[in-house]
Amino acid sequence: MDLPDFPEVSGAALQAVLKRWNLGGMRLEPLESTGIFNRIFAVGDELVLRVPRQHPAFTGALRKEGLAVAAAREAGVKTPELLIFDDALELLPVPYALYRRVLGRNFEASGRPPGETPAVFYALGRDLARLHRGVRPEGELAELCHGDIQMSNLMVDASSEYAALLDWGACGWGDPAHDFAGVPLGMVPAMLEGYRTLTEPEKGLEARILYRHLHLALFLLSRPPQPGRSWAERPLGMM
């Protein structure tokens, strides 16, 4: 899959962004990421700057993130606070967002086998219940889904405990079963256990989850190798 390029953004332009928000002089450094939507920069120790690819699909996803993050946080989901969203295009050729940083690392980068830390997935299940139960369009049966649940979007702290759910660019209204895919199938029971502590899922959820796992596994097999991508996007990951 050919992706649109990230915009060419100079160090001076990034510093101008920081200066606009009274952050001038703070340390700015790129962070490694397996995601494809945004370039990510650490701003000091407490903030993160996200700059999307230069294409309406990716800039639109960043706009959508801001709305989803606010709704998810109001529902009690652990996700970083959005501090600034700027789409004026005065300093950068694309919109950008500044988030409060969550200390820790993504679960995939931690190197811990998922089976050793079921509590992470139990806590994730509880957050999904908060999201699915707490954010619904008025008069509709659809639920807000994160849309990209995978181990690289789960933050854990220094004690390998669940800290936050990241990256809302793929969110949308849909079937909650989709939020139980993208992680090893063996972790789904722990997620469902946590989920059921806050809400009782509708009948047939387990069957739809299994169907989604099989669908993704077969879809990914058609891809060429994906070096540098997360486990859930590599051809043999889901299988």
Reconstruct the topology from this structure.
Layout: H1 11-20, E1 28-30, E2 38-43, E3 47-52, H2 56-74, E4 82-86, E5 96-100, E6 105-106, H3 107-110, H4 118-134, E7 143-145, E8 154-156, E9 162-165, E10 172-174, H5 188-196, H6 205-221
Antiparallel strand pairs: 1-2, 2-3, 3-5, 4-5, 6-8, 7-10, 8-9
Helix pairs in contact: 4-5
Largest sheet: 5 strands, antiparallel
Q: What's the gyration radius in Å?
A: 18 Å
Q: What general outline do the C-alpha atoms trace? A: globular
Q: How far do the termini sit from each other?
A: 20 Å
- Tell me the number of helical segments per DSSP (H or I, 4 or more residues long): 6
User: What share of residues are in beta strands?
Assistant: 15-25%
The residue-averaged pLDDT reads 91
Secondary structure class reads alpha+beta
Summarize, please.
This protein has 239 residues and is an alpha+beta fold.
What does this structure look like?
The chain has 239 residues and is an alpha+beta fold. Helices cover 32% and strands 17% of the residues. It contains six helices and ten strands; from the N terminus they run H-E-E-E-H-E-E-E-H-H-E-E-E-E-H-H. The strands form three sheets. It has a five-stranded antiparallel β-sheet, covered by helices on one side. A three-stranded antiparallel β-sheet has the order 6-8-9. The protein has a two-stranded antiparallel ribbon with strand order 7-10. The longest helix has 19 residues.
